[in-house]
Write a structure and sequence with these properties.
It is a single chain. With 370 residues, the chain is of the alpha+beta class. The chain has one domain: Anthranilate synthase (4-Layer Sandwich), CATH 3.60.120.10. Helix content is 29%, strand content 36%. It is built from nine helices and 19 strands. Strands 3, 4, 5, 10, 11, 12, 13, 14, 16 and 17 form a ten-stranded antiparallel beta sheet that branches. Strands 6-2-1-8-9-18-19-7-15 form a nine-stranded antiparallel beta sheet. Helix 3 packs across helix 9. It is globular, with a radius of gyration of 21 Å. It starts with a helix and ends with a helix. InterPro entries: ADC_synthase, Chorismate_C. This is Isochorismate synthase.
């Protein structure tokens, strides 16, 4: 059954029709959404239903894949453990000098008081021709704990990723979001020891989210900070739960995106610095994607003897959106891998460079997995 999904996706690629295949974290189901035409549909206010793919800059309208056909199939968890790619440093090296200059420039602006934090990213371009479907199968094998996807629109492009970060998950008017910061390589024998810089960076993201949401929601609840493992990396995570007023989902989403975890603080100043100094267009990297307003039908009365009441059912709208991290864009004969990291006054350029090299291995493993 799962092979039929891969075959269907291959057919859509060949026929230049949009589709997305995705598996949610720690689930054993592969989902497919297939659109019957090649039109580009946009999201206007997030009241629409479909699979949304949104850019880093919401000044460009998010793209909506219509749910003309939805197919699900069970899929086995592989969870293959792979070593760091031997040539990973060499593959990154051509970007190093420019990235260190960019970090140094950001530190100067931070020390002058215009920024507290800015997230700087870069694009690694590899000349190669690959099968997108085969690459996606590698992603599924390697990263069972991440949101894994392949998204394709013939007029936009093809993206593949394995992201650990939920932007916003809702059921009716209840929602969950998270702040995610800090990165360390995982060691199966021990949990990470976090530095003051990493703990402070995590708290900045949490504080920003709480402040951004306070006027948009009815209630908020914050969890303790925990360490989570994703894609052979450790991160710090705080979960935030709450309730928003009816028809306010779009307001909550726009208040959240972009978070300091992908942009910086103050948001406006950080976004301006990114726009003026990163030497490429992020496009959908550090944007978000996922199910938007999918419907679930709930029976109001589970007593089968009461047939009259059982006929009344309620429909709840659910959304599950993920930040587009650890991803790559596939073109005809090139692959672009995107990585980045948060720069604060405590940052050291060489260490920040090494963190992006470590993050790039998430996608390099996919390219090298046979």
């Amino acid at each position: 059954m799962v092979q039929e999904l891969f075959d269907r996706a291959s057919a859509n690629l060949n026929n230049e029709l949009p589709f997305v295949l995705y598996r949610k974290p720690n689930e054993a189901v592969l989902n497919g959404v297939f659109q019957k035409d090649n039109q580009i549909y946009s999201v206007v206010d997030f009241s629409e239903t479909g699979f949304v793919f949104a850019p880093f800059d919401l000044g460009s309208q998010p793209i909506l894949l219509k749910t003309d056909e939805i197919i699900k199939a069970p899929i086995e968890h592989m969870g293959i453990s792979l070593a760091i790619v031997d040539e990973i440093s060499l593959l990154n090296e051509s970007e190093k000098a420019d990235y260190l200059i960019l970090i140094t420039k950001a530190l100067k602006v931070i020390n002058e008081g215009e920024l507290d934090k800015v997230v700087l990213s870069r694009e690694i371009v590899i000349n190669d021709e690959v099968s997108p479907i085969n690459l996606f199968q590698n992603v599924l094998d390697i990263y069972p704990q991440a949101f894994c996807y392949i998204w394709h629109h013939p007029k936009v492009g093809t993206w593949i990723g394995a992201t650990p970060e939920i932007l916003l998950k809702s059921r009716g008017t209840q929602f969950t979001t998270m702040s995610l910061a800090g990165t360390q390589s995982s060691n199966e024998f021990s949990k990470p020891k976090w530095s003051e810089k990493e703990l402070n960076e995590q708290q900045v993201v949490t504080d920003y989210i709480l402040d951004a949401l306070k006027n948009e929601v009815v209630s908020l609840k914050v969890s303790e900070v925990t360490s989570i493992e994703a894609g052979q990396l450790w991160h710090l995570r705080t979960e935030i739960n709450g309730v928003f007023a009816p028809n306010k989902f779009g307001d909550v989403l726009r208040a959240l995106h972009p978070t300091p975890a992908v942009c910086g603080t103050p948001i406006i100043n950080a976004k301006k610095f990114i726009d003026e100094n990163e030497n490429y267009e992020r496009s959908f990297y550090t944007g978000f994607l996922g199910e938007l307003n999918f419907s679930t039908e709930l029976a109001r009365n589970k007593n089968r003897r009461n047939q009259e009441n059982s006929a009344y059912r309620s429909v709840v709208k659910n959304s599950e959106l993920f930040v587009n991290l650890r991803c790559m864009q596939i073109r005809k004969d090139t692959i672009s891998i995107y990585v980045g990291g948060g720069i604060t006054s405590d940052s050291r350029p060489e260490s920040e460079w090494n963190e992006t090299v470590l993050k790039s291995n998430t996608m390099f493993r996919v390219l090298n997995h046979k």
